[in-house]
């Protein structure tokens, strides 16, 4: 292995679950964080711009990028000595768009490059998993496109699937935050069998619709009974805003990851859809939100 002294990484945002695919489905979005890591003599230097800069700067050595770089270098038997970490963040924090996954995966990828380690995708994901906990966001962030991922005896197993060329996403991002931990606490430990069967069918239909280009099936395929109904109380106005997105012509609407961002899929210009969803949120729950029209990232981390 040939060690490097400096590396730059670009990692996309991601949306997980896609409605019914709880902890399994994910898709990469064309909104990017950039990370530059340099091996120095001693200590840690953090330089952060963009989303959450002040909050992340204050974490110091507990900053997720810094921690994932340092600990991954240790696992790869490289003594860092010191690090200079520069971050340009465009992914909003605690909004259901994979900011933590981008940080963890970006740090792991930077460390692997600095160590000169040639790792396969699943090896990279296994290194990132302890920092993130679930593979549904880190997998699309690494591979791009639409992904299916799960854990088998603690190891990530994943597949990347093609996405129809016309598809794009509209992320309607509210001004408030929602932690994944809080969103998970809202979920019951068991669910009715009928709801589990409902979701199995919708996940299968979603993947089949994407594979065959039957985008007209996505609205029904994106329906969910396992997590969105239980999280609705944490996202005031969610049901009304999702319904407004469908009325505005979205192919499908769902909670992005654990939320609170709401996401719509469209095959055309989604600007009006996003504007109508944001206006509905303000009218229904007095929530201020901004809408971003995002291409589907097909390349993943670079």
Present the secondary structure layout:
Blueprint: E1 6-16, E2 25-40, E3 43-50, H1 53-57, H2 64-75, E4 82-89, H3 99-115, H4 121-132, H5 135-143, E5 146-152, E6 155-161, E7 168-174, H6 180-185, H7 193-212, H8 218-221, H9 228-231, H10 238-247, E8 252-255, E9 262-266, H11 271-285, E10 289-295
Parallel strand pairs: 3-4
Antiparallel strand pairs: 1-2, 2-4, 2-5, 5-6, 7-9, 7-10, 8-9
Helix pairs in contact: 2-3, 3-4, 3-5, 4-5, 10-11
Describe the structure.
With 302 residues, this protein is an alpha+beta fold. It is 38% helix and 26% strand. It has helices at residues 53-57, 64-75, 99-115, 121-132, 135-143, 180-185, 193-212, 218-221, 228-231, 238-247, 271-285, and strands spanning 6-16, 25-40, 43-50, 82-89, 146-152, 155-161, 168-174, 252-255, 262-266, 289-295. The strands form two sheets. Strands 1, 2, 3, 4, 5 and 6 form a six-stranded mixed β-sheet that branches. It has a four-stranded antiparallel β-sheet with strand order 8-9-7-10. Strand 8 (252-255) and strand 9 (262-266) form a beta hairpin. The longest helix has 20 residues, at 193-212. The model has no long low-confidence stretch (mean pLDDT 95).
